[in-house]
Amino acid sequence: MLPDKLTVYYYWLSSKPAYSGIIERLSKGVTLVRVDSFLQEKVKEGIKDVYMPNDTHTSSHGNDLIAQLLVSKLNGQYSEINN
Prior knowledge:
Blueprint: H1 5-8, H2 22-26, H3 35-44, H4 60-82
């Protein structure tokens, strides 16, 4: 599940949406790649243009970051299986 713009910029919002914590509640017993936390960290590091300026969809730069995360996670899973 890819996070929307509100989820990634959650910590910078003056009023927090009511759905905070829903991922934790819905993901019990499911292996997730936490793209939301990853993108939040990238934004905290100063990475810009993760989302389209006037839209809630990820930009090409955001998509590249997500792809790097997924490849990293998949490589880690396959190395654990092969060892």
